[in-house]
Amino acid sequence: MKGKIKYLLVSLSLVLLLTLSLGTGCSALPFPMPIPAPSNPAPTPPPQVTAPPNPEWTLPPPSRPAQPLPDFVSVVAKVKPSVVAINT
Fold first, then answer.
1. Which of 13, 21, 24, 65 is least surrounded, with the fewest CB atoms within 10 Å of its CB?
2. Long-range pairs for 58-65 at CB < 8 Å and ≥24 separation?
3. Is 12 exposed, middle or buried (CB count within 10 Å of its CB: 0-12, 13-18, 19+)?
4. pLDDT single digits (tens) 37-61
């Protein structure tokens, strides 16, 4: 008799747990809300008119020459003493 009551309580609590967990998940879903139409829509501004681009325009010359990038080998030689390698 005690075994049947224990089995019934475990089954009932499992069903209750599943119902609560699944029910909570379904209520968290966003449902589409109807959006009411505005009664007085705002007037749309007229489109802006822009001038066409000048086809003869070019980039201005640089004010100073570009510096060349340092050689990759010299950069590694500077940085290598600070790199730590961990071998396991």
1. 65
2. none
3. exposed
4. 767 777 888 888 788 888 888 888 8
Q: Tokens 């005690």 identify what position?
A: 2
Phi, psi angle pair for 13, to nearest 5° = -70, -35
For the record, the structure tokens of 20 come out as: 């609560």
3-class secondary structure, 31? coil
Buried-exposed string 19-33: b where 16+ CB fall within 10 A, e elsewhere: eeeeeeeeeeeeeee
Retrieve residue 81's tokens. 């003493």
64 — pLDDT class (breaks 50, 70, 90) = confident
Sign of CA dihedral 33, 37, 40, 42: positive
Which residue type is seen at 72? F
Cα 43 to Cα 23, 35, 46: the distances in Å are: 45, 20, 9
